[in-house]
Amino acid sequence: MGSQVYVNGKEIENPHEFHHHVAPKKQYVQVLGALLVLTVLTVAVSYADLGPLSLPVAMLVAAVKASLVCAFFMHLKDDDRFNVFVFVGTLLFVAIFFSFTLFDLGARNAVNDEQKTFEYWNDEAAAGNALKVGVDHVPEKAAALKAAHAGGHGDGHGGDHGDAKAEGHGDAKAEGHGDAKAEGHGDAKAEGHGDAPAGEHEAKAPANHEAPGGH
Amino acid sequence: MSTTSHGSGQHEEYPPYLAHHFDTMGQQAGAAKLGMWLFLATEILMFSGLFLAYFIIRYFYPDMMLSAHEFLQKEAGALNTVVLLISSYTMAMAVRAAQTSNTPSLKRNLLWTLLCAGIFMVVKYFEYSAKIEHGMLPGRFYEAHYHGYELVGLPHIFFAVYFTMTGLHGVHVLVGMGIITWIYIRASRGDFHSGNYIAVENTGLYWHLVDLIWIFLFPLLYLVR
């Protein structure tokens, strides 16, 4: 064994002395007390009507609590600085993740206005797409989804659905399904999936529209 | 093992719990702790995705958030917060007991921590069963309107967020209970003392992280204003 021993890049003078910092019991009790007081404060703040400030205030209190837990219970206060770096680095990346996503959300309206995306959404919604899901429609939608599934996998389930769709949408699919029915299941799947994956996608969309009518 | 080197001088003697690829206990403990912190970093990033989903949904549907959260039991959430904070304290005391070679205190504090975790899960169980009973379930499983509850907006999305976030957190609590049990068994064998307690310390770090996440979950889910 070499004479010099390094821990986290620093040379250690007495390598077999296992350094650790033991905090006094009193400190842990005080931290717990502070955490409980802050919990009461969080609940109190939620009842006091602070309007738009309530979320930032609640988050601030939570952040103070989290800092207490990190600094004292998790020993970051007296710990190797590199562990602090890992933790703070994580928070930095979380902050980037949050802020860029929220920038995007904030800019959405401007972009939608400019590109008229919103009208497009409206058309989709009017056509009974998923965007229009209300509370009352949920079970209906589940049924519709099931129906769509049954329809989408028309290979296995009777000719009516399959035919209707095949004629409606494009040649590629028509062929795929046609062969499928004529020759049987084994070949059908290989051809249908291989040739026209885009076609399959389309096949599900119209099924979605039809299904609610059927019920 | 108490006869092994602690002070200076006996450089050639290796403690039995020191892995051969480490020079010193300090180095071994430092490496283990750094590894734990890196793991905790991935945990924080995983939960941050869920928190971001929460904020996006809240940004788009503030009224729905406000009305749906009324159906969560604030008292249960507050009780669980207090229980988890106390368990964090007992866990910190367990680590301190290990640092001072106080095995009886270590075992006692681990048991207190386990008890608190158990209380947390029991409260969660009652909360979840009430939600399931009232049909307040995520996504297409939502059927509270059949039970006479009219919630505005898209409550099935709120409950999806609620169940995903608290569910993942609950899984972490269960895993933590398992690890604490394992540490308790090892403590009973006399594995831990002031020269070797990194396993206890890392368990503590994990447990405090579970607490940290709940510190944010509680005001966000239960105390919306």
Description:
The complex is a heterodimer of chains A (215) and B (225). Chain A is an all-alpha fold and 215 residues long. In chain A, 72% of the residues lie in helices and 3% in strands. Chain A contains nine helices and two strands, in the order E-E-H-H-H-H-H-H-H-H-H. Chain A has helices at residues 25-47, 54-73, 81-115, 117-126, 138-152, 159-168, 171-183, 185-195, 197-214; strands at residues 5-7, 10-12. Chain A has a two-stranded antiparallel sheet with strand order 1-2. In chain A, helix 1 (25-47) runs antiparallel to helix 2 (54-73) and helix 5 packs across helix 9. The N and C termini of chain A lie far apart (80 Å). Chain B has a single domain, classed as Cytochrome c oxidase, subunit III, four-helix bundle (Four Helix Bundle (Hemerythrin (Met), subunit A), Up-down Bundle), CATH 1.20.120. In chain B, helix 4 runs antiparallel to helix 5 (155-188). Chain B is elongated and about 70 Å long. The interface between A and B is large, with 68 and 70 residues.
